[in-house]
Amino acid sequence: MGKFFALMATIWEVLVRRVDSYLMAAALAIVGIGLITLFSASDQNISRVTSQVMSLGFALLLMWIIANIQPRQLARAALPLYILGVLLLIAVALGGTVVNGSRRWLNFGFARFQPSELMKIALPLMLAWYFQKHETRVRFRDFILAVVLIALPVWLIKREPDLGTALMIGASGFYVLYLAGLSWKIMLGLLVAAAAAAPLVWPHLHDYQQERILTFLDPARDPLGTGYHSTQASIALGSGGVIGKGWLNGTQTHLDFLPERHTDFIFAVFGEEFGLIGSALLLVLYLLLIGRAFVITINASTLFARLTAGAITLMFFSYAFVNMAMVSGLLPIVGVPLPLISFGGTALVSLFIGLGILMSVQANRKLVKT
Amino acid sequence: MRRLFTNRNRPSTISGPELRDPQRELLHFRRRLLIAGAMVIVAFGGLLGRFVYLQLFQHRHYQTLAESNRIAIVPIVPNRGVMTDRNGVVLAQSYSAYTLEVTPSRVKNLDETIDGLATLVEVQARDRKRFKRLLEESKNFESLPLRTRLSDEEVARFAVNRYRFPGVEIKARLFRQYPFGEVASHVTGYISRINDKDVERIDAWDETANYKGSDYIGKVGVELAYERDLHGTTGWEEVEVDAGGRAVRTLSRTPPISGNNLKLALDIRLQQAAEQAFGDRRGALVAIEPATGDVLAFVSKPGFDPNLFVDGIDPTNWELLNESPDKPLLNRPLRGAYPPGSTIKPFLALAALTSGKRTAAQTIFDPGFYQIAGAAHRFRDDKPGGHGYVDMFKSIVVSCDTYYYMLAGETDIDDTHAFLSQFSFGRKTGIDVEGELLGVLPSRAWKRERFKDKWYLGDSISAGIGQGYNAFTPVQQAQAIAIIANDGVALAPHLVKSIENVKDGTVRQIALQPTQALHVKPEHLAAIKNALVGVPREGTSAQAFVGTKYVSAGKTGTSQVYSLKGEKYSKQVDERLRDHAWYIAYAPADQPRIAIAVLVENGGFGAQAAAPIARAMFDYYLLGQKPRAPAVPGTGPQEPEDESD
């Protein structure tokens, strides 16, 4: 008997050894909220929830595996992963599956896969690896190369079209550059360049993308057309009030007024049914998750680990912020899911891979504080 | 070499691999991370602020929006009141039926959709044409009926295939049905879809809310005149709807209140008898109960089938009705003004008695014509050689023109105008439907206004036998003879007898409205009534009234359409240029129960064409005898036919 417990204890030890409990607790709490909300958003159809739970199982497994890999090994995988990612994106451009007018998916028969999700991880890894490799000497050409490394997948994803993901992946690359110490002047220069380029980019945006931006600037412009999503989401949140309408009782949700309510707009469902208290609680949970990730980043032992962990941390933040800001009408509508909550297997898996990397970094942290 | 990364901000005097300072580098990294952390806090703080704004401060506003999203107010159309005749026979009723409706704005290809629907339910070419017509008249977002009165089988067939036809749906609607079709069509009128003009009318009544769910409104006849009684009060249902506008459940309900039921003064059997007596001939008939003003029959021939208008009339039938030379849509009793011809004589005789220009016994000599002193023109009498010595009784019984030429020559037209006005000639009788024509009762003022000309003696002579400028409507004629029958008491004629409030069961009688009493002496009126009795007994209409079991009173009239200058009718004279035939009458003579004005367009001599119809009416109304087939066949109107294709 004692032997059995000892064995179990050993297995448990192995299971949790490199798993960061704070990160895990925060992530699972958020995922739990997500599943509860998903059930409501799917009109109490359990099949979507079970599908998400199965993705979660797979995601946890991958997280565990990656948590058990040394950051060194991860660094070694960076270049192949990046190349694989770019190749898959090219494959998507050539023969991807079209859903809702966007060519974003690769169909492998048994599963569909969105290569842009792989890129979310691969790009920061790649850049971090590159800077680690050239740690001693970062010159102008390295910067140019970094920009090219960022621009290539961003361009491929943007033309799918998936502007939201392209922007987010561009941001993840930028985070690495920022954390690597890119000078403020250049960042300012980039900002100015971006602003100057806006009129040049505008004609290249798709009609619906232009519409979304115009609608954001003036939601009353077309309340039943492109403004509809934004308006209905605000109504859902606002009508939820402080304590919410109660689980499964959201009228905006259950009478079909909320669009995309189990994916990009799931936060509106949550906010309608759980009110300000729920929204604030979710913010706190994200803050805990991100805060813990900051701690892990600070304690990271190598430049590669620091840059990777930092970029992943900031990406979690960006996704959560952009999605909630979009749903609550602070930002124009871009197709960005709410991390760990929106329905979607691929996104869940890539997020847990990110968590796995953070845990790997945490397990290999500097033991001695400087 | 420019430096790109600030954490290597040592002097760059050394070329080659730069020395690293891990401590310093780490410090830089942490500073950047700290800045990022601050950004996270600020951004989340911003989000929290936004949530507080939306969910706390703006909660009430969004709550209202969510409610108005969720709750739709659906009007429940009330049942339109039923119309019955004076004996309770239904003349107009509502029934619920399924219609197949198309919302053009939600349909991509209308023709394809209609073709597809035609494979499931019967869609005839006339349905298509009618739909096209509705389409042109309506706004795109309205749902328009393609087919009405679907059979249960058709409903079931469509229901199965419904998914194939977005923008097409089956609706239960209230329809109006007129069981008697053409009979009394100008009385009931019809309802039809509400158009822009009707909307203005509804606005003027301040009834916009009450008509929210209504598609139909009274357009003519009693349906128009009593619209506000018939319509009823719209009910409301608060329903929860989803984003697609489908009702999910009912939250509250205010039931509609049905419109008031109308009992008409009309006797539909008498009406049928009258229409039957007309046969194919064009004309009008108005029968009034003298003591009450009840309109017992109100005929305009040809009529039309009001049922055609309810769903929106199809263009083929519309053309047939609208362009027919017989003018079936013209409400002749109300809006047809015809010279009264000799029917005016008893009224002029009464005027002469009242003014003292003649006594009943006074005679004149009729040589067969009348000449104005010093003029060559001879006003001819009907009878060549004349009637010889003629008193007032005979002047009416034989309808002596010369008697009235002479009288007119001595009478000022304005005096005549003033007296005859009492019979509502040239004025509205006050009948309870809209559109009554004034007709013409000439006077100096009228001629000055109308022709910018003065009144000539010749005008008076023509007017003296009911020709010239005189033009009366059949309603005016019926009202005038009813006033005589009722011993000078004028009551406004009315088609509706009582109004029943369905909700509380109260019945409101249409009050008798005495318009004015005639200013005549009873003995004068008696003399005239006596002469009117002589007309069917021994006078111009004697042939038509041979062997009646009651005593009637009447007067024939023939109004010239075209002057033949003494010629006889020949086959060359166009049927439509023939004279109009009049007969005004009442019976029984001592206690009149019914007063009638009959007009047969282009009927020729009044005694031949119009008097037999009046007799048929009396026989039916007083004795219960069914009328025989019309004696004089005429060229009838083309019945609007269904197109066969």
Short characterization:
The complex is a heterodimer of chains A (370) and B (645). Chain A is mainly alpha-helical and 370 residues long. Chain A has helices at residues 2-16, 21-41, 46-67, 71-95, 115-133, 140-158, 163-179, 184-201, 207-217, 227-240, 251-254, 266-298, 303-327, 345-363, and strands spanning 97-99, 102-107, 112-113.
CATH topology of the largest domain in chain B: Beta-lactamase
Mean pLDDT of chain B: 84
Main sheet specs of chain A: 3 strands, antiparallel
**Largest interchain contact:** A-B, 56 and 49 residues
N-to-C terminal Cα separation of chain A, in Å? 45 Å
Give a structural overview.
The complex is a heterodimer of chains A (370) and B (645). With 370 residues, chain A is mainly alpha-helical. Chain A is built from 14 helices and three strands. Helices cover 71% and strands 3% of the residues of chain A. Chain A has helices at 2-16, 21-41, 46-67, 71-95, 115-133, 140-158, 163-179, 184-201, 207-217, 227-240, 251-254, 266-298, 303-327, 345-363; strands at 97-99, 102-107, 112-113. Chain A starts with a helix and ends in a 7-residue tail after the last helix. By secondary structure, chain B is an alpha+beta fold. Chain B has two domains: 72-264, Penicillin-binding protein 2a (Domain 2) (Alpha-Beta Complex), CATH 3.90.1310; 268-313 and 335-627, 3-Layer(aba) Sandwich (Beta-lactamase), CATH 3.40.710.10. Chain B has 23 helices and 23 strands. In chain B, strands 2, 3, 4, 5, 10, 18 and 19 form a seven-stranded mixed sheet that branches. In chain B, strands 12-11-23-22-21 form a five-stranded antiparallel sheet. Chain B has a three-stranded antiparallel sheet with strand order 1-8-9. In chain B, α16 runs antiparallel to α19 (457-463). The longest helix of chain B has 36 residues, at 22-57. Chain B is elongated, with a radius of gyration of 38 Å. The termini of chain B are far apart. Residues 7-19 and 629-645 of chain B have low confidence and may be disordered. Chains A and B meet through α6, α7, α10, α12 and α13 of A and α1 and α2 of B.
